[in-house]
Write a structure and sequence with these properties.
heterodimer; A: alpha+beta; 5-stranded antiparallel sheet; 4 helices; globular; B: alpha/beta; 32% strand
């Protein structure tokens, strides 16, 4: 059962990446995560948002939308959505070190980082329409540690 | 994110403080491209010990500079601490390309002897 949710929408500017991380981290803090769990979530969100900005929209402007839901069992579900160019072959894109960008500065690690740092990752994409990445993570019961 | 550059002979030490994401990596790259050309840099030391956050854009930025420095026969070294940066460095295989050190002093000594 969803106990809380939020929706965030911002322009696909790289200057907004830090804002997105901080906003999702602040929202996720309600689940009382450890610093490591929070760092994992922030990193995954940063990768997903960067993908939307760099690959989804390229040099064009668009909006990136993040939905967050908190569940009673301490799971957070995060969707990062763009209405950009989409991905022709999602399976190929998910291969480690593959990058759609001709820019040699892109490490091609975005998907593998999201998959590793979160419990699950789902990628839904339609070329010409956009991409939605759905991430979930169950926060451990840290009440005795905190 | 703050970027501090320090020159030691022909080795440039790049110390980053704060969050290294795609936005900050772009800024760092521009600054380094100018510095490497203007100051006749041969070696690079990336000091990530004061980073509070990094994502794979930081890895991409390091790899980009590594390719450039390698093409002129120089060396790149990485200094960092913390679990999160360690995880990303391990995942990227960056250790196969460059040495990592616990502090800048050790990195600088080693690079100068290379």
């Amino acid at each position: 059962m969803v106990e809380n949710k939020m929706k965030l929408e911002f322009l696909s500017k790289s200057a907004n990446e830090g804002f997105a991380r901080a906003a999702v981290a602040a929202f996720a803090s309600q689940l009382d995560p450890t610093l490591e769990e929070l760092a994992d979530i922030k990193t995954a969100v940063s990768e997903g948002v960067t993908n939307a900005i760099v690959h989804g929209y390229g040099h064009a402007n668009g909006f990136v939308t993040i939905h967050c839901e908190l569940f009673a069992d301490k799971t957070i579900r995060i969707t990062i959505q763009d209405e950009g160019q989409g991905i022709e072959n999602v399976e190929l894109a998910r291969q480690p070190l593959y990058t759609m960008s001709g820019d040699s500065e892109r490490a091609g690690m975005g998907f593998i980082v999201m998959e590793t740092f979160m419990d699950s990752m789902q990628v839904d994409s339609t070329p010409g329409t956009g991409t939605t990445v759905t991430l979930t993570k169950k926060i451990a019961d840290n009440t005795s540690a905190n | 994110m703050e970027i501090a550059l320090k020159l030691s002979q022909n080795t440039l030490i790049v110390s980053l403080t704060g969050e290294l994401d795609h936005h900050a990596a772009g800024r760092t790259r521009e600054l380094l491209e100018r510095a490497i050309t203007e100051k006749n840099i041969k070696n690079l030391i990336f000091d990530f010990s004061k980073l509070s956050f990094m994502d794979s854009s930081g890895i991409g930025m390091v790899i980009g500079r590594y390719k450039l420095i390698k093409s002129i026969g120089g060396h790149v070294a990485l200094v960092y601490s913390g679990r999160q940066v360690e995880r990303l460095v391990e995942m990227s295989g960056l250790k196969r390309l460059m040495k990592v050190y616990p502090d800048v002093t050790e990195a600088l000594t080693d690079i100068k002897e290379a």
